[in-house]
Amino acid sequence: MATLSEAFADHHLHSPRILPLDFNSVDTVPESHRWPISDDLFAADHRLSIPVIDLQDPNASQLVVHACETWGAFQLINQGVPTEVVEEVEAEAKRLFSLPAQQKFKATRQPGGATGYGVARISPSFSKYMWHEGFTVMGSPLHHAMQLWPEPADDYTRFCEIIENYQKKMKMVAEQVTQLIFNSLEIDKEDANWVDSAFAALQLNWYPSCPDPTRVMGLAPHTDTSLITLLHQNQTSGLQIFKEGCGWVSVPPLKGALVVNVGDLLHVVSNGRFQNVLHRVMVDLSRSQRLSVAYFYGPPLDFRVRPLVKLSSQVPRYRPVTVEEYAVMKGKSFERAMSLIRI
Ligand code: OGA
Ligand code: NI
Q1: Is 273 noted as a catalytic residue in this protein?
Q2: Which ligand is closest to the CA of 238, given by its number?
Q3: Rounded distance from Cα 224 to ligand 1 centre (Å)
């Protein structure tokens, strides 16, 4: 069977640059990172906002279903993740991104690899680079942590423990949200029997302060390849989601909340009823650095994703595809991937 790394490897034909810019070394935005100015770049609507849902609310199921249909995203509060766990992971992520560039480069994602330090995974689909650096974890980050902090051992073991603990907490929330959604959609238990072998990846995102934030893109528009994504953002704004008929809408950080995104796989599973939300990140105009931690969750690579909702009166809109096949399509064809499996 293919490994996670193979499915999520960089499949682009043009050898992509994996190393981010050493952002500390520049005081102007280089041409490679200068995006064409477009009208919508900073035109996000600040009046509308995605729903905030309390996981303990007796009506949580209906609220979640409605949010997934109308927005493809919501902010989840009261999900039981202790503040310390979030603060610890923030501190470790900052410790990582504050390392000298040469040190971070030692933990670079290998060409064709999936984990480690590097540019945004979606970079090969765009002609300009993003004002962003990232670190991807699948399971234990030990290998890369030892490259970042060769000694003392405390330095890398602490990082690993905190990252693993955070993933454990995210897994619990992801399972609850998935169960709530699957129950609401009346999906058969057998179609959810993959929970014990679920696929997950953790992505630390760092958006450095920028000398000219109006000319750069933090993270270009994309949908997530996951079933759902749980996103923690620190106190700096920047995340925006696209809502049909409204345009770009800001998603300001809300203390103690996790932003839940509907990913491509849930769009398929729900036969198109739930929106796989298009989102992007702008760099802060007041030059604050921004940190986010994304947890991507879904069925294992060999699971055949297909519309799992009862289709009594509808026709299936998507053909079955394994998670792995879809991840490869997404890597190669990016935004066209969904149309490749449409019936
Ligand atoms: C992602 C993502 C948003 C953010 O990592 O896929 O959309 O706020 N991140 O960093
Ligand atoms: Ni995303």
Answers
A1: no
A2: 1
A3: 9
